[in-house]
Design goal:
Layout (H helix, E strand, L loop, with lengths): L10 E2 L2 E2 L1 E2 L10 H14 L9 H21 L7 E4 L2 H16 L5 E5 L8 H10 L2 E5 L9 H7 L4 E7 L11 H10 L3 E5 L11 H4 L3 E5 L10 E5 L1 H6 L10 E4 L4 E3 L13 H17 L1 H21 L3 E4 L8 E6 L4 H10 L2 E2 L1 E3 L4 H6 L5 E5 L6 H17 L12 E2 L2 E2 L9 H15 L2 H14 L21 E7 L6 E8 L2 H14 L2 E2 H6 L2 H8 L1 H4 L2 H20 L2
Parallel strand pairs: 3-15, 5-6, 5-7, 7-8, 8-9
Antiparallel strand pairs: 1-2, 4-10, 9-10, 11-12, 13-14, 14-17, 16-17, 18-19, 20-21, 21-22
Bound molecules: pyridoxal-5'-phosphate (PLP).
């Protein structure tokens, strides 16, 4: 299987890529890449509209793909398979259409504590609009749903139950069949978020008897921007359209519009035609390998990986459910997950770090983030061994920065602001550019950044408040500023974060701005500096946004505080 994925033969930081971020998205086999090429080279046209041959070809391929997907999930009819943009879109469709048209004050929607934000926020929005109440099934320390609590929360008021099949942040496989059966006894409708399941085991929506099932193409070796909502025909028939536009209508006059039949009623506008067709190719690909086989292989790989990861000193697994898919979320005692992610990347290993769009899960475990290695069927023991060796190396060699009390940037209640390092931000920027030039490659530069971050004095705890919190960063960032009492033109600030890589960026910002005149802060062209130093290119999008949020906070405070 591995040989089918060209990207797995590439290098990351000069080392063979070990891709362990399959929970976020899977890589694509050559057959899927070729199918995309073939579609745009030979089959492209709009569907359902043209009388000419090419349009009929594209329409046939698109509809044939729907039938493949129907068979893949064992839906009773192909009209129960609706193309969407992905899991998020599928859940929003049900929440908006079914939720808005049926929920009323006093009704309840039940989700679990381990949901992805995409299975929380759409329901919150609909509950706010309809007066229904959102209830949450708690989870235990292992990250398993507490079934007795679920039973207690269920009542005739429960109208919709929407739960995840496999948790993306914990790996827990939920007992969805039992959940569906119990919810049905109370007359509730059940949606299953299958984003993390479909590529890892067989799906049979009729055996499950779920009312809706949602998944994304890109998590099952297919393209991004395409996903599926399965829904029972009798429910979908009764639901109003989610969006209006071309293709979803039967007849339009200014007085009244009648709607098209299923599934088109829910497919307004020109869809992702290539995505739909190529998803069919991806489905063929996994079906030929066999989902049973994939499930057995991944279970064995997880058992191998998880036992060895847990042996590494300082590692704590988050999510230790008895039934787990191939996801390992973990924290280490010394290294912040974001720093771990950057250092593993330097070893050629791609893992995800952060809250994984599951902030309530992080809150439940009282942690800001985890590192997550999520495996797919093409991962091997060799990948796992390299990952484990890299985690060992990073955790063993990493010197944790001093505890909060060791070197605070305050003394006797007085805050010790860093002084200016050069006569202007421009001069400080030149010094930084020279330093970075000497460091050479980005591997060394990252290490330098993390070291700088490690040396940044911690911010006094009492200054870490909601007011000093900088929003828009992946990590927790606080920034406190003041004009110098001796010279009101001078802008002083300190900042801090829980991740050393972000502290490294703060150290750069301090060199540029701390102790400088407020008007010089405003004038300095930091964007050009970020380009020259290469930060805009080498930071991840999320971290670049975080850096921009810190800069705009510095500029605002420099302009405002007098
Ligand atoms: N649900 C779960 C459990 C997920 O893991 C994800 C994506 O990570 C989603 C929903 C959202 O999927 P998408 O971004 O493809 O819509």
């Amino acid at each position: 299987m591995r040989a089918d994925f060209p990207i797995l033969r590439t290098l990351a930081h000069g080392k063979p890529l070990v891709y362990l971020d399959n929970g976020a998205t899977t890589q694509k086999p050559q057959i899927v890449i070729d199918a995309t090429d073939t579609y745009y080279s030979r089959e492209n046209s709009n569907i359902h509209r043209g009388v000419y041959e090419l349009s009929q070809l594209a329409t046939t391929l698109y509809e044939e793909s729907r039938i493949k997907i129907q068979k893949f999930i064992n839906a009773a009819e192909s009209r129960e398979v609706i193309y969407t943009k992905g899991t998020t879109d599928s859940i929003n469709l049900v929440a908006s259409s079914l939720g808005r048209s049926t929920l009323k004050p006093g009704d309840e929607v039940l989700i679990s504590h381990m949901e992805h934000h995409s299975n929380i926020v759409p329901w919150q929005l609909i509950c706010e609009q309809t007066g229904a109440m959102l209830k949450v099934i708690p989870i235990n320390e292992a990250g398993e749903l507490i079934f007795e609590e679920f039973e207690k929360l269920l009542s005739p008021r429960t109208k919709i139950v929407s739960v995840v099949h496999v948790s993306n942040s914990l790996g827990t496989i939920n007992p969805v069949k039992q959940i569906i059966d119990l919810a049905h006894k109370q007359g509730a409708v059940v949606l299953i978020d299958g984003a993390q399941w479909v590529a890892h085991g067989p799906t049979d929506v009729q055996a499950l008897d779920c009312d809706f099932y949602a998944f994304s193409g890109h998590k099952i070796f297919g393209p991004t921007g395409i996903g599926i909502l399965y829904g029972k025909a009798k429910l979908l028939d009764a639901m109003p359209p989610y969006q209006g536009g071309g293709d979803m209508i039967s007849n339009v006059t200014f007085e009244k519009t009648t709607y098209n039949d299923l599934p088109y009623k829910f497919e307004a506008g020109t869809p992702n035609i290539a995505g739909g067709i190529v998803l069919g190719t991806a489905i063929d690909y996994v079906s030929n390998i066999g989902l049973e086989k994939i499930a057995a292989y991944e279970a064995e790989l997880l058992a191998y990986a998880q036992a060895r990861l847990a042996e590494i000193p300082g590692v704590r697994l988050i999510g230790t459910a008895k039934k787990k898919a191939s996801v390992m979320s973990f924290i280490t005692s010394g290294v912040h997950p974001h720093d771990l992610g950057v250092l593993l990347d330097l070893e050629g290993i791609a893992v995800r770090t952060g809250h994984h769009c599951c902030q309530p899960v992080m809150d439940r475990f009282h942690i800001p983030a985890t590192a997550r290695a999520s495996m797919a069927a093409y991962n091997t023991r060799d990948d796992i061994d390299r990952f484990l060796a890299a985690v060992r190396k990073v955790t063993a060699s990493y010197t944790p920065r001093p505890a909060q009390s060791a070197a605070p940037s305050s003394s006797n209640g007085k805050i010790l602001f860093p002084p200016a390092v050069a006569e202007s931000p421009e001069a400080a920027a030149q010094e930084l550019l020279d330093n970075f030039d000497m460091l050479g490659d980005w591997q060394t530069r990252y290490q330098y950044l993390i070291e700088m971050g490690g040396k940044l004095p911690p911010m006094p705890k009492e200054l870490k408040t909601d007011t000093t919190r900088v929003h828009g960063c992946q990590s927790v960032v606080h920034l406190y500023s003041q004009r110098d009492p001796k010279d009101k033109q001078v802008f002083n600030f300190i900042a801090d974060s829980d991740a050393d890589i972000v502290r490294g960026l703060i150290a750069i910002l301090e060199r540029l701005y701390a102790g400088q005149k407020a008007d010089a802060v405003a004038k300095f062209d930091v964007e050009t500096f970020f380009k020259e130093i290469g930060l805009d290119q080498h930071l991840s999008g999320g971290r670049r946004n975080g850096l921009s949020s810190m800069v705009s906070r510095i500029r605002t405070e420099a302009a405002e505080k007098v």
